[in-house]
């Protein structure tokens, strides 16, 4: 049975699909939220924790590449790698489904689905994970603001944690600086969790993604009829965060007009929704982040100094991963454990050479890049030990030293051909139904997925 307390988000552009899934699931779980616009997915995830997301792969009629689905899958897992994402894809599109599993989806459903099968898939996806060491299994978020632990034993990370501990209980605005993927958003969540506002909302907004027009209505809200598409009034992020924390990400990318509006709101501690002339008082603690060199932007005149002083009562700079190589091993093992548990695989070991390779890489994408590299390795690895060949990086200094083993594996041995044909025929016999094909072949679904990947079926 699906856990009764579960919260499910369904994203699909077909209203009929949304209606049918809502009808089916609303008696099974605590909450079902449906959304037809995938652009709103991240803001929904930031406002509320969802245990699982049912995600359609294609959003534009006539398009069946699934690329949009992959994009959104990546964004969901970036936001919280422990979210169970079940992709909904066109019947028979096995290739896309396998690619989706490799990209981190928990499972997939083929349209049209059988309700029993859908409920079973959700039940499995939401089962507590097993196979990881006790006490350190990946934590599901327990509320909208629950954060994944900020790991790292390097001096730099210990210092960051010490500042967080000191600053979190205060009302100070905090500006988080650092390259992409260094953990700024994770720090923002930790600050909120350790603050006196922890029981109140944590609301995040990626302000760089907001066009100039949207900026005001998104942050300050709007009244019904304020502009053509405003069919109902809407509360802005400031108001939604009342009593809690507002996290503004990519703050360095907003233009001067938006900066002026933000500064006015912060100075007056009130916002005026678009289309209204009645100010709404707001009580928020402001956290913001950027990977831009904000001080240099101020010096250049593209970022207002007075706004920066409002934002950076305390500044925390997250060091790039290449400057804390000591943390690489610890993080790699952590992610291996998380992804092994998610894929219901035993936790792999790392060979000494693989660890050396990870340590020597320069990690331009920082912890996020490491996380994805380990996830890929865990899914695609053939044995219980991760080898250097399981990690391939684009940068020349860490080009994979595959050597002979890979060459042998790539040769189409007759035995491999037999296996490939057998699998292909089983799938054809069952018209793309992998569960049935796996059963006939005497394999688990996961074992079948691995073989599909191995043979590029
Ligand atoms: N110290 C850490 N311990 C555990 N996980 C981490 C750590 N730092 C980052 N991560 C993970 O790496 C991923 C990227 O982190 P996060 O989104 O916080 O980075 P960011 O600096 O906000 O990135 P961006 O600037 O691109 O928005 C997340 O999945 C996060 O959970």
UniProtKB/TrEMBL annotation:
PANTHER family for the chain: ALGINATE BIOSYNTHESIS TRANSCRIPTIONAL REGULATORY PROTEIN ALGB (PTHR32071:SF113), TRANSCRIPTIONAL REGULATORY PROTEIN (PTHR32071)
Domain of life: Bacteria
Span of domain Response regulatory: 7-126
Residue stretches spanning the membrane: none
Protein source organism: Hymenobacter roseosalivarius DSM 11622
Domain Sigma-54 factor interaction positions: 150-379
Alphabetical list of SMART domains matching this protein: AAA, REC
PROSITE patterns named among the record's database cross-references: RESPONSE_REGULATORY (PS50110), SIGMA54_INTERACT_3 (PS00688), SIGMA54_INTERACT_4 (PS50045)
InterPro entries: AAA+_ATPase, AAA_lid_NorR, CheY-like_superfamily, Homeodomain-like_sf, HTH_Fis, P-loop_NTPase, Sig_transdc_resp-reg_receiver, Sigma_54_int
Protein name: Two component, sigma54 specific, transcriptional regulator, Fis family
Alphabetized UniProt keyword annotations: ATP-binding, Nucleotide-binding, Phosphoprotein, Transcription, Transcription regulation
Gene Ontology BP, a term: regulation of DNA-templated transcription
Residue positions where 4-aspartylphosphate is found in the record: 56
A molecular function (GO) term: ATP binding
Entry-linked SUPFAM superfamilies: CheY-like, Homeodomain-like, P-loop containing nucleoside triphosphate hydrolases
């Amino acid at each position: 049975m699906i856990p009764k307390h579960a919260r499910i988000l369904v994203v699909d552009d077909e209203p009929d699909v949304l209606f049918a899934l809502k009808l089916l699931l609303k008696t099974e779980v605590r909450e079902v939220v449906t959304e037809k616009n995938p652009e709103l997915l991240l803001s929904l995830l930031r406002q509320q924790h969802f245990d699982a997301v049912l995600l359609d792969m294609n959003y534009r009629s006539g398009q069946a590449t699934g690329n949009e689905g992959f994009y959104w899958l990546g964004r969901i897992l970036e936001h919280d790698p422990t979210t169970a994402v079940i992709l909904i894809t066109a019947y028979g599109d096995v290739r896309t489904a396998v690619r989706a599993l490799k990209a981190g989806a928990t499972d997939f459903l083929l349209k049209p689905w059988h309700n029993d099968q859908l409920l079973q898939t959700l039940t499995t996806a939401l089962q507590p994970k097993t196979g990881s060491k006790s006490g350190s299994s990946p934590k599901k978020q327990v509320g909208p603001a629950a954060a994944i632990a900020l790991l790292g034993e390097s001096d730099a990370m210990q210092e960051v944690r010490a500042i967080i501990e000191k600053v979190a209980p205060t009302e100070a605005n905090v500006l988080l600086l650092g390259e992409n993927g260094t953990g700024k958003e994770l720090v923002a969540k930790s600050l909120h969790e350790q603050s006196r506002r922890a029981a109140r909302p944590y609301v995040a907004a990626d302000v760089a993604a907001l066009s100039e027009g949207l900026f005001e209505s998104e942050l300050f809200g709007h009244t019904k009829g304020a502009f053509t598409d405003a069919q109902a009034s809407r509360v802005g992020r400031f108001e939604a965060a009342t009593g809690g924390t507002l996290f503004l990400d990519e703050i360095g990318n907003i233009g001067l007009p938006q900066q002026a509006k933000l500064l006015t709101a912060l100075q007056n501690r009130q916002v005026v929704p678009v289309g209204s002339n009645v100010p709404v008082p707001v009580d928020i603690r402001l956290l913001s982040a950027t990977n831009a060199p904000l001080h240099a932007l101020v010096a250049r005149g593209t970022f207002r100094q007075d706004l920066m002083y409002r934002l950076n009562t305390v500044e925390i700079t997250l060091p790039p991963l290449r400057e804390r190589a000591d943390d690489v091993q610890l993080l790699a093992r952590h992610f291996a454990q998380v992804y092994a548990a998610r894929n219901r695989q035993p936790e792999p070991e790392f060979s000494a050479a693989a660890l050396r390779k990870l340590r020597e890489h320069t990690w331009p994408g920082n912890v996020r890049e490491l996380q994805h590299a380990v996830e890929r390795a865990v899914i695609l690895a053939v044995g219980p030990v991760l080898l250097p060949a399981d990690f391939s990086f684009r940068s020349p200094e860490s080009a994979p030293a595959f050597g002979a083993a890979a060459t042998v594996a790539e040769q189409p041995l007759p035995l491999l051909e037999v296996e490939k044909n057998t699998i292909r025929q089983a799938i054809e016999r069952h018209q793309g139904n992998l569960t049935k094909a796996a059963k006939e072949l005497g394999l688990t679904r996961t074992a079948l997925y691995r073989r599909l990947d191995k043979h590029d079926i």
